[in-house]
Amino acid sequence: MMKPRIKIVRSTTGEEQTIFLEALRFTIGRSGENDLQTNDSSVSRHHAEIIREGEKFRIVDKGSKCGTFVNATRIQNQILVHLDRIQLGNETQAVFLTGEDQLTTDARLEPDTPSIIMSFAGSDLRNVSKLLETARIFSGALPLGEILDLVLDMAIEVTRAERGFLVLKDRNGEPRFQRGRDRAKQPLPEEAFQISTTVLKQVMESGERVLLSDVQGPEKYVMSESILNLEIRSIACLPLQSYQVVDFSTSSYVGRKDVLGALYLDSKTATESFSKISQGILDSLATDATGVIENARLLKESREKERLETELATAHEIQATLLPKIRGAYSFFSACAQNIPSRHISGDYYDLIKLSEDRYGFVIADVSGKGISAALLCSMAQGFLYAEALRYESLAACLESVNKYLVLRTNSNKFITLFYGAISRDGELRYVNAGHNPPIVIHANGHIEELYSASVVLGAFDFAKYQEISMYLQPGDLVCLFTDGVTEARSEGGEMLGEESLKKILYANRQKSVEEIVANVFRAVAEHAAGTPQSDDISVFILRYTAIEQEPDTIN
Asked: What is the pLDDT at residue 40?
């Protein structure tokens, strides 16, 4: 017995090459990683492989775009036998041999050879395939409609049908007319879309093609009402389906087929039986049409994603201008604040409001949820609270007004946790904590305190009342406001940073400037997360009471 081998034949040059199959796997494709590399552009980078199974050899298609054919039939995986003809792409052909090579070059070029590329129709297909490949490469440089019309025209020519239709599933999975063509290469309107619904339904549900020549076929098709009423004699209906490959680690092909639609052709006149060549061409056209359609969908999704990314980037820039730049000395205190959103835009906000020469208000808030809706509510609350803070001297009265406004203007499933404080030149600190993480006070003497008050979140109950508390700060006392994105930052093992760790970080850095403390808090959060994706917005606002007259900074 002769050694198993494949004889490669280049259809464009006639060049032959024999390769012995000695390894357990023999890979074929355009990539240089393959055992057999080809420059044929219609061959995928990792197109197919031949796997040894004891004394047998199995060829497996690796999800190629143009398909793998054995004896003019498209396959996913198949055991090879002596003299099987393999077709990869437009130019690469091979013969599997385990014995004497009984085929001469002339025999391989005879017109009835069951190879798509060696037929006249196959030559046309090669041109179509190249055009379709170009359309994919340039991602929609050619209008999708023109490409699909070309597919229909070629399919009509191959089958000698009178008309052809391309059908795609809508969002509900129902078939919908997309394109129609006749034998004269003229478009057909949707009104002409009267077809055999029995055949179309079967193909869409099963993912298997149906070919009827001169109404010869299963009785359920031949005797169906639509075929009888329309006087249809010949039908070719092929599924447009994508193969999602799951695993190539075993010799058996594993994948899932998604039927996107169908290529439907029919005629009222009888036609000859469909040859293997015609069937192969139709399969290839259906595959190419699927590729173009999927590529167009991906392009549309990509452009939509780019548009959304641009809009979100613009929203981020706008939101960044709304957050004040808090950094440096402000007459009788120093302050620094920073925000890092988990997405493009944040549901956190902070603010510093000059109420008078001797009194400043400061705010930090966290809107429930994330994304655009949270950011919009955040901006609305920021603007309204700023206006009400200048109107009401009482912090509690200010928040009661803001709360009623939010209840009227927002959904019941949205609320805001917020801390609003006001610091005076004499060191008095008045505050209301509306369900927010209690800020941490690091006193100059090292004592640590948290700022609670028995008040509920904003935007939930229109009858809510808010408790205002007063205390006095001493020079050097530090106040840290933060959102739960800080304390709930998780490590790779799922452990949260926690408030106790934050207190230790603040205590250890209490002698440093507020800018350095903010930077060190964010550094500690990043080190704790150790690359774990940020799941929530992170905001930190630190204020130190100095009581000493300083050159004030401008609040932007």
From this structure: 77
